[in-house]
Amino acid sequence: MLTLALDTATAVATTALVRDGAVLGERVSVPIRVLEDVDSLLREAGADPQELDAIVVGTGPGSFTGVRLGLGAVRGLAFALDVPVAGVSTLAALGAGARGAVPVIDAKRREVFVEEGGAIVALPAAAFEAPGRTCVGDGALRYRAHLEATGAIVPPDDDERHLPRARFHVELARDFGAAELVEPVYVRAPDADRMLA
Prior knowledge:
Layout: E1 2-7, E2 13-19, E3 22-29, H1 34-45, E4 54-58, H2 64-81, E5 85-88, H3 90-97, E6 102-103, E7 105-108, E8 111-116, E9 119-124, E10 135-136, H4 138-142, H5 144-149, H6 166-172, H7 191-196
Parallel strand pairs: 1-4, 4-5, 6-10
Antiparallel strand pairs: 1-2, 2-3, 7-8, 8-9
């Protein structure tokens, strides 16, 4: 089974091409280059887009625009290629790449997205603590000083565990179906909606 995976929820986009559990190629770039990365992965693997059996997409939480960009790209690809899609939480993918660590995504507005009690929530960064735990993700990097001051461990900035690697999305994907059924994880309303209210 040839599966394409991508995540554009954070400032760093990741893509991967996986065949039967073996990673054929990966890319790390920025969200606006995700389709270029997909094209490069397919070319380097010598695969035609029509050979894809499924697509997995990161559903967030993260940047509203980033999440929409990823979902839009995947919906277009899935429609054109007539393949099923599965969505995977970006926090879950971070956790899969750093077993036992606490995934923390920068939610902007001085907040972080974390999983708490089985739910994904936005918390004030200054109030979030994880004493004695390793924290990974762009939220852990942005609020390193606070987290370390409260007893958390944050790996170096260039540590692989801070990336929501698309290869982990493939491992976590379960329910494949129509692309339009994949729901984004926004956690809160977009800024534009808040301003209108």
